[in-house]
Design a protein that fits this description.
By secondary structure, the chain is of the alpha+beta class. It has helices spanning 3-18, 89-92, 201-204, 213-217, 275-279, 292-295, 302-305, 333-336, 351-354, 366-390; strands at residues 68-73, 76-81, 97-100, 108-109, 115-122, 126-133, 147-149, 164-167, 175-176, 179-185, 188-194, 227-232, 240-242, 248-250, 267-273. It has one domain. The strands form three sheets. A seven-stranded mixed sheet has the order 7-10-11-6-5-12-15. Strands 4-3-2-1-8-9 form a six-stranded mixed sheet, with no helix packed on it. It binds 2-acetamido-2-deoxy-beta-D-glucopyranose (NAG) (2 copies). Residues 228-266, 284-372 are annotated as: Disordered.
């Protein structure tokens, strides 16, 4: 073809490279260098980022559209929830905003009584909060079985689009949790942030089991009415199990029902509180450091933990100590107020795991995700056709 066409082709190629799309999970920001909006893409099928990522005392409160969440400790964490009532998680996962358990992050602040039980755990691989809530207090629809937020999604812009997650639990300063997942629904929540220094961060924070809920993706010992901060063994990566032949293998969503029940890792060194201690006043809450010693007491760990490289637990344990000195907080005033009905533990309510086929989770709105994917491939097809015509 004529030389001028090569020039035109080159111009088109460099234009498309200049506008190269970066998936959310590839974006890294130091905490003090977070841009106003992390997602600046325009003209894509799901539109523009709803809120912003620079969040401060000006943005804090009932009108906040902050999309930077933190998980720091038992009393200081956020969940992704709607900015306005009336929309299910499946409808609005791309526009979720941060609702935090306490002020100080420039976000919406959860009303009193939102969290009705929560377990914070720190493991060698991740931190997580799992618990129970009155989800209507954070604009969720009563009875909504909910779904998953994570930094991926069919178009790789994340749910919410542009959502960032940070924690000060690993180094004392804020560091970005690149891989994370948050399931909210049926008055339960789980939010896991995986330490990027760990060898399997993406696996522990897997995003492909979006209809399976907390019992599958984040099995825990969380109990209604109990508020505790613990060290823990790591879960098995979601989907991974040991089959009858003794081989470690992976079940995928869509392959019928899971052929196994996810192992609940044992938690240890728990400090238990009354909810009023942690949400109504400042209380120094320890973040226990998981160690080999703290994990050895339970036999339930050994089967699964053999699949973890032993090196995992060594690297991250030194940094936490600041908060963990206060033994005085292990007074268990919260424990005695625990409802007898601990039949509602997170471990026994993976009901969404059992009947995921009829739970109206985010994938019930497959039309939306499917449409996005189709539109994206249409764009790609159009671009290729254009290049072909030029050539
Ligand atoms: C607070 O955040 C808003 C929204 O991101 C931003 O426009 C404003 O400049 C920030 N204010 C300060 C003092 O940093
Ligand atoms: C699903 O997504 C579509 C847009 O893709 C939207 O119109 C609809 O309200 C959503 N919810 C349901 C339950 O279909």
């Amino acid at each position: 073809m004529p030389l001028s066409n090569y020039a035109l082709l080159g111009a088109l190629l460099s234009a498309s490279l200049a506008n190269a799309f970066t998936p959310l999970a590839d974006k890294r920001f130091a905490y003090n260098q977070i841009p106003y909006k992390v997602d600046t893409d325009v003209g894509l099928p799901r539109g523009t980022q709803l809120g912003y990522n620079q969040c401060n005392s000006t943005t804090e409160g009932p009108n906040s559209l902050c999309q930077t969440a933190v998980i720091n400790s038992l009393d200081d964490f956020c969940l992704w929830a709607p900015s306005e009532p009336g929309h299910t998680v499946g409808d609005i996962e791309g526009e979720m905003i941060a609702w935090c358990s306490k002020p100080g992050h420039g976000t919406r602040v959860m009303p009193k009584g939102t969290i009705t039980g929560v377990q914070f755990t720190r493991t060698p691989d991740y931190i997580q909060v799992v618990g129970f809530m009155d989800q209507t207090k954070i604009n969720m629809v009563a009875g909504d079985d909910g779904g998953e937020m994570d930094p991926h999604g069919a178009d790789r812009r994340g749910n919410p689009i542009g959502g960032l997650v940070y924690t000060n639990a690993w180094t004392g300063g804020y560091s970005q949790a690149v891989e994370w997942h948050n399931f909210n629904g049926a008055n339960m929540f789980c939010f896991k942030a995986c330490d990027p220094k760990g060898p399997k961060a993406a696996r522990y924070c897997e995003h492909i089991y979006d209809i399976m809920g907390c019992g599958f993706n984040a099995p825990s010992n969380a109990k209604e009415g109990v508020f505790e901060s613990c060290a823990s063994d790591s879960q098995d990566p979601p989907g991974q199990y040991v089959n009858a032949a003794g081989q470690t293998t992976t079940w995928r969503q869509g392959d019928g029902n899971p052929p196994y029940t996810p192992r609940i890792p044992s938690s240890s060194l728990c400090s238990t509180f009354a909810s009023t201690d942690i949400f109504d006043k400042a209380t120094n809450i320890p973040i226990p450091t998981p160690s080999a010693g703290s994990q050895s007491s339970s036999s339930s760990i050994s089967s699964g933990s053999s699949s973890l490289p032993t090196s995992v637990s060594t690297s991250h344990t030194s940094s936490v100590s600041s908060g963990s000195s206060s033994a005085s907080h292990s007074s268990s005033s919260g424990t005695s107020s625990r409802p007898a009905s601990s039949s509602t533990t997170a471990s026994t309510t993976p009901s969404r795991t059992q009947d995921s086929s009829n739970s109206p989770s985010e994938t019930s709105n497959n039309s939306g995700a499917g449409k996005s994917a189709t539109s994206l491939s249409m764009i790609a097809f159009t671009a290729l056709t254009l290049l072909y015509v030029v050539a």
